[in-house]
Design goal:
Keywords: Membrane, Signal, Transmembrane, Transmembrane helix. With 265 residues, the chain is mainly alpha-helical. The chain has one domain. Helix content is 61%, strand content 3%. The chain has a three-stranded antiparallel sheet with strand order 2-1-3. A hairpin with a 4-residue loop joins strand 1 and strand 2. Helix 1 crosses helix 9 and helix 5 crosses helix 7. It is globular and about 50 Å long. The C terminus is likely disordered. Bound molecules: 2-acetamido-2-deoxy-beta-D-glucopyranose (5 copies). One 2-acetamido-2-deoxy-beta-D-glucopyranose binds next to helix 7. The site of one 2-acetamido-2-deoxy-beta-D-glucopyranose has 4 residues, from loops.
């Protein structure tokens, strides 16, 4: 059930990120809040994350996530230097929060390395779009997941997180998980991180979806919307003011990756 688990763990990671974003330490919050406006983090569209953080507990997060991602995809991509600056500011300002998330043993260098390696792939997957109706694949997938598990609100995510950590997996049909969108996402991950997709995993995915799902061909109606320009770091911003709320993405990316590793190695 690799595909199901992958989706569930992404939900779990996002849920943990959101839960944490509500209970961040004061020091961490002020670090992040003062940095949302930094021109250097514009590549992660941090202003739109505020809409996610401030959404009502029972409101669906799909639209705020869609707003944030579509804005982020049209921004020039972050440079490695910007990512490194964001990580080092956040690891300095949010030390205790990182510790409670279980990342206390990772050095800033290690986190930077993981973020820099994962960022281009995460961005490519996040910016896939269904050309037929101009909807981001993530949005479409989340909408489909919503119709199986109910409104993806903060309240619902918290209950999903406790359900899943209690070993109870919500039943999401294959038709939701095995779409042209998720197929292209799978293609991208397999191309960028071939060692992650072992023949074992490919077998499980084939079982869940179909042989066509793993044939490597790009579905004709799926397009890449990521802006391919590279952000030019603003010259005079100081290094210590470059972090931003998007640490949530980094957390989620790291959580998703480590969950994937924990499951398959
Ligand atoms: C969310 O829904 C629950 C259960 O229906 C309700 O008790 C709670 O007051 C709602 N919260 C908000 C912020 O609307
Ligand atoms: C983290 O570091 C502490 C002390 O250095 C060690 O006891 C612990 O086992 C480490 N945890 C992990 C998950 O590596
Ligand atoms: C960014 O850093 C990663 C890992 O640290 C490296 O693999 C990648 O090639 C770098 N990208 C650029 C454009 O320098
Ligand atoms: C696009 O199609 C998908 C799948 O049928 C659907 O979930 C989504 O709501 C549609 N989006 C729009 C803007 O019509
Ligand atoms: C893309 O959108 C079209 C039109 O709404 C829909 O029929 C199709 O199922 C969507 N593709 C995916 C991969 O969901």
């Amino acid at each position: 059930m690799f595909a199901k688990r992958a989706v569930l763990f992404s939900i779990l990671a996002t849920g943990v990120g959101l839960a944490q974003s509500i209970s961040l330490s004061a020091g961490c919050q002020s670090t992040l809040a003062s940095l949302v406006v930094s021109p250097n983090s514009a590549c992660l569209n941090p202003q739109a994350l505020v809409g996610i953080v401030t959404a009502d507990d029972n409101a669906s997060l799909v639209n705020p996530i869609d707003n944030w991602l579509s804005g982020q995809c049209s921004q020039p991509q972050c440079t490695n230097e910007t990512l490194a600056n964001i990580v080092s500011t956040v690891t300095a300002g949010c030390q205790s929060d990182l510790q409670s998330l279980g990342f206390g043993n990772l050095s800033a260098d290690e986190i930077t390395n993981v973020v820099q390696m994962a960022y281009p792939t995460v961005r490519k997957v996040a910016c896939l779009s269904n050309q037929s109706n101009n909807t981001l694949c993530v949005t479409e997938t989340l909408n489909n997941v919503q119709s199986s598990v109910g409104t993806l609100s903060k309240t619902e995510l918290q209950s999903l997180v406790s359900q899943i950590s209690g070993g109870q997996l919500p039943d999401i049909p294959s038709s939701t998980l095995c779409t042209d969108c998720t197929k292209e996402g799978f293609n991208i991950v397999k191309t960028d991180f071939p060692s992650l997709v072992t023949s074992n995993i490919e077998g499980v995915v084939t079982n869940e979806c179909s042989a066509d799902f793993v044939d490597g061909s790009t579905p004709s109606n799926i397009e890449q919307t990521a802006n391919t320009a590279t952000a030019t770091p603003a010259g005079n911003a100081s290094g210590s003011t470059m972090a931003s709320l998007p640490v949530g993405i980094a957390f989620s990316a790291i959580l998703t990756l480590t969950s994937a590793f924990a499951l398959f190695v």
